[in-house]
Amino acid sequence: MTLQHPLFGSIDVSKRRTLQATSSHDGASIALDLNLDGHQSLESVTQLLSWVDQLSELDRRARSALAKDASSGDEDAATLLYVEHHRDELPDAAIEQLFGSTDRALIDGDSVLPKLQLLRAGLYPEAKGAALVLDYSLSASLTNYVLCVTFDEAANVSEVSVES
């Protein structure tokens, strides 16, 4: 069972492997990876690959979920933990580079969220509740931590988390 995709090329869905590609989004390059376990259907892979063409809408929905998480009032919210960690741990030079000031008191969810860059879209055709993961970072060169927004197989946001 093989299909053709403009970014990933020829895809044999019966083989276990990870395919990688890059795409342009909002003027930046993002990494794409398609993670096949060898047991997914051609239909599930085809549906998920169609989401690559809808990245702008999915990015908008993910950013909305990040904003909702940041304003949830939950002190353990992933977005707040990400903001607090970077406010406390980044060196002054990085803070100034990102925010134009070294005043850490000005760094909150409202100032961080617009600075987040979409770095990666991971596609998982057979992962229940986690078919797509979008990874965001303030800067890949300044931090190893990413905010992850996970979408289920119906393209609904199912989780916001922090990963390293």
How would you describe what is shown here?
- This protein is an alpha+beta fold and 164 residues long.
- The chain has one domain (2-73, 117-163).
- 30% of the residues lie in helices and 33% in strands.
- The chain has five helices and eight strands, in the order ββββαααααββββ.
- The protein has helices at 42-50, 55-70, 78-89, 92-99, 109-112, and strands at 2-5, 9-12, 16-25, 28-37, 117-123, 132-137, 146-151, 157-163.
- The strands form two sheets. The protein has a six-stranded mixed beta sheet, covered by helices on one side.
- The radius of gyration is 17 Å and the shape is elongated.
- The chain starts with a strand and ends with a strand.
- The model has no long low-confidence stretch (mean pLDDT 95).
Highlighted features:
single chain, 164 residues, six-stranded mixed β-sheet, two-stranded antiparallel ribbon
